[in-house]
UniProtKB/TrEMBL annotation:
<feature type="domain" description="Secretion system C-terminal sorting">
    <location>
        <begin position="688"/>
        <end position="753"/>
    </location>
</feature>
<dbReference type="InterPro" id="IPR015943">
    <property type="entry name" value="WD40/YVTN_repeat-like_dom_sf"/>
</dbReference>
<dbReference type="InterPro" id="IPR031815">
    <property type="entry name" value="DUF5074"/>
</dbReference>
<dbReference type="InterPro" id="IPR026444">
    <property type="entry name" value="Secre_tail"/>
</dbReference>
<keyword id="KW-0732">Signal</keyword>
<feature type="signal peptide">
    <location>
        <begin position="1"/>
        <end position="19"/>
    </location>
</feature>
<dbReference type="Pfam" id="PF18962">
    <property type="entry name" value="Por_Secre_tail"/>
</dbReference>
<protein>
    <submittedName>
        <fullName>Por secretion system C-terminal sorting domain-containing protein</fullName>
    </submittedName>
</protein>
<dbReference type="Pfam" id="PF16819">
    <property type="entry name" value="DUF5074"/>
</dbReference>
Length: 755
């Protein structure tokens, strides 16, 4: 009887011991007692063998992950540095945040701390990091800072989006066992506690070992150090893809396709602590050293992962570091942006064109006359900056021509246009449903060219920047044809600006077989300004989960498809491709550095700057400074000519500024002025009096005076009415002015002093 009692006690003890096996702090009666299984200390691997260290500090620990999934290499190792206090959870989260190949499934906030439900690693390097829950491929889950959260011990329900990744998760069909030691010479010991309770010390080792089918696994005899991960692309080598993103789930983003066709995802968010753009980011452009991202709304209320950035976000174009963000851009929704000069840009919105102070990062007032109309009948679309003007497309109204010197509306070209570009030769082109319209960049005269058989798809309803694009290497325009106002076609059209000929079958969009075909999305088509290759982005037809499929196609100048890249499955909704501004402008060495003038002299400045990723025709030239305004005046006229007017004899230094897409070159000229012009005028019976003047100036001449122009010494023209050969100068500030007087026989100039 006593023997039976002792046996019963031993049985109870054994049962009680088995019942107390814990997994990450949770008692698990169904889990085999793995604490008795001897574990090796893996003496072949030391801290000196660790390659990739995350964090900073004087303390060091090692994290090893062993998947036991028959994929090599299996057991991978990272290093972790810190100061102060740190837990095993801190180490996993720090590594997951920095190494974008590493991702975890966590159940945080339990009474036992955070449960590690799944661990993954992008083994094939494709960057496809995400999970499907219960095989729901319509709504994949993607990590933020390497973490996908759940609120239950449902770890068995998840699998990796990329089947080639390391991925193990489970609780009832398999689980992650936790092994720790605090010295390299010790054996690993099983920890029934979770990572939250694990206090690291200098020299700690943590090992997560997946028990497949609930069976304990030996610690691997081979550990493999993980190579250093770099999320930093060289943003001068490749191109950007600005994304609308998945409305109701994530705010706008930008990906970068870099060297060796590597795709870097959400590069702005990576650089700015998970910040994003606004909702439905639709446009991006680089001007100078800044990248301007425009979104329709300031934020997407459904995004719980990324911090919204506003309708306008400005970033450093080479580092992606945030400079500024704006929710309000004048009261309307965002459309596009164009750089005007070093200090000013224009924001196109659903309710007009707004000034933007680049120097001080401030949104300014609407340009008078550009507003009006409802959101979807009077919105502003694309804009371009020529050497003299800004052209902005307004829905149903036409094309505004804005004088960037005064920020005033100069004229409106009426018509129903979709988009506008500037060709290599400097000509301006707008597109309508079935025709191209050539616009003279200075006289604004128009010439129409009917598209022979196809149409251009409109983009005003749910506005996007459209596929209309121009080459900077050839005198050619491109766009994607359409079958109707809402349905895109399958061909890329080319228009030769020089010969005025159409090729409506220049290149074909791939993926046109099967039930679900590839279709262009957003702006879809752009031309690389340096290589002259065409970049086309497509998605899959069929709506819903089909929009997770996205491709980037590259065509050469003959229309041949030379490369196709497949993006990670996600609802990116690509909006527009943007190319980095890599090359600096170069000034023509034949531009004179000294000049002698004895009368009004013009110097042709057209195409005096070459820029590999810009066209010379839209380089903006301005007079930056004149050392001695009393000797000469100077201005740039509408023909991109420098007009120098001598006032008195002497020598002055004139500095010109050449702005190529926000990159500025200065050129200094020494101007020697002769008195010949003044002497010539004095011999003619032409007088102005009184001089100096306070109120009115009278002109007396034996010839008929037909016109008088007044200029200040910076070369700026001042409008003053001429009535009965008399000028009203009361509005002039005190100073020296130049009168250019035209008679029926000749032209003269006179100096006027205003008291």
């Amino acid at each position: 009887m006593r023997k039976m009692y002792l046996f019963f006690l031993l049985f109870l003890f054994a049962f009680s011991t088995n019942a107390q096996v814990t997994v990450q702090g949770v008692p698990r009666s169904e889990v085999k007692n793995i604490t008795s299984k001897k574990q090796a200390k893996n003496s072949n691997f030391t801290m000196d063998d660790v390659v990739y260290w995350v964090g900073t500090g004087s303390n060091k620990a090692v994290l090893a992950i062993q998947w036991n999934d028959q994929k090599n290499p299996d057991a991978l190792v990272w290093g972790f540095r810190w100061d102060g206090n740190a837990t095993g959870e801190d180490m996993i989260k720090a590594i997951a945040k920095v190494d974008k190949r590493f991702y975890t499934l966590l159940y945080q906030g339990t009474q036992f701390g955070s449960a590690i439900g799944g661990i993954g690693f992008d083994l094939d390097g494709k960057g496809t990091v995400g999970l499907y829950k219960n095989n729901n491929t319509t709504y994949p889950l993607y990590p933020l800072d390497g973490i996908i959260n759940t609120t239950a011990y449902d770890f068995d329900d998840y699998k990796a989006v990329d089947a080639n990744d390391h991925w193990q998760s489970g609780w009832y069909q398999g689980y992650w066992s936790y092994w720790v030691k605090d010295s390299a010479t010790d054996d690993f010991g099983y920890s029934g506690l979770g990572a939250t309770s694990r206090q690291l010390v200098n020299g700690s080792w943590d090992l997560w070992n997946y028990n497949v089918d609930m069976n304990p696994q030996d610690i691997s005899s081979t550990f493999t150090p993980v190579s250093v991960y770099s999320s930093q692309a060289d943003f001068t080598k490749g191109f950007f893809m600005v994304n609308e993103e998945w409305f109701g789930h994530t705010n706008g983003s930008v990906n970068f396709v870099g060297e060796n066709d590597q795709v870097y995802y959400r590069v702005y968010s990576e650089k700015n602590n998970n910040q994003a753009f606004g909702a439905t980011t639709q446009y991006g452009t680089i001007y100078g050293d800044k990248f301007y991202f425009i979104s329709k709304q300031e934020s997407d209320g459904g995004d719980t992962q990324y911090t919204p950035g506003g309708r306008l976000v400005v970033a450093n174009a080479k580092t992606m570091e945030k400079i500024a963000g704006f929710d309000n851009i004048g009261g309307g929704d965002g459309r596009s942006f164009v750089g005007v000069d070093q200090n000013t840009g224009y924001i196109a919105a659903s309710n007009g064109v707004y000034l933007f102070d680049i120097a001080n990062m401030q949104v300014g007032a609407v340009i008078t006359g550009t507003g009006g109309g409802a959101t979807y009948s009077g919105q502003i679309g694309n804009m371009i900056r020529t050497s003299q003007y800004v052209f902005a497309v307004k829905q149903t109204t036409g094309i505004f021509v804005i004088d960037p010197k005064t920020h005033t509306l100069k004229t409106t070209i009426p018509g129903s246009f979709h988009s506008i570009v500037q060709a290599k030769d400097g000509s301006v082109w707008a597109i309508q449903n079935e025709k191209l319209v050539n616009i003279n960049p200075t006289t604004f005269a128009t010439t129409e060219y009917a598209i022979p058989t196809t149409k251009y798809i409109g983009s005003w309803g749910a506005w996007n920047a459209g596929s209309f694009t121009a080459s900077t290497q050839q005198n050619a325009l491109y766009w994607i044809n359409s079958k109707s106002e809402w349905l895109s076609g399958t061909q890329i059209v080319k228009f030769d600006v020089t010969t005025k000929t159409f090729n409506e079958n220049f290149a074909a969009i791939p993926g046109q077989t099967g039930t679900y075909k590839q279709i262009p999305y957003g702006a879809a088509l752009r031309v690389d300004p340096v290589s002259d290759k065409l970049i086309l982005n497509t998605t899959e037809s069929g709506y819903g989960a089909h929009y997770q499929k996205n491709w980037i196609h590259t065509y050469d100048t003959t229309g041949a498809l030379i490369k196709t890249q497949t993006l990670n499955d996600y609802y990116w909704f690509p909006a527009v491709t943007v190319f980095p501004d890599v090359f600096d402008p170069i000034l023509d060495s034949n531009l004179p550095s000294s000049l002698t003038v004895n009368s009004v002299t013009t110097v042709d400045l057209k195409n005096k700057v070459t820029d590999q990723d810009n066209i010379g025709a839209n380089v903006v030239v301005s007079v930056k400074s004149i050392s001695k305004n009393a000797i000469i005046s100077a201005e740039i006229n509408e023909n991109d000519e420098l007009v120098i007017t001598p006032i008195t004899s002497g020598t002055a230094t004139l500095t010109l500024s050449f702005n190529s897409n926000g990159k500025v070159l200065d050129h200094t000229m020494t101007i020697s002025s002769s008195t010949l012009a003044t002497d010539h005028v004095s011999k003619v019976d032409l007088q102005i009096y009184p001089n100096p003047a306070t109120d009115f100036v009278s002109l007396k001449s034996t010839d008929k005076v037909t016109n008088v122009e007044v200029y200040d010494l910076s070369g700026k023209r001042i409008e003053l009415p001429l009535l009965n050969n008399q000028l009203d100068v009361r509005s002039l500030a005190k100073g020296v002015y130049v009168l250019k007087i035209t008679t029926d026989k000749a032209s003269y100039q006179k100096k006027l002093v205003k008291n």
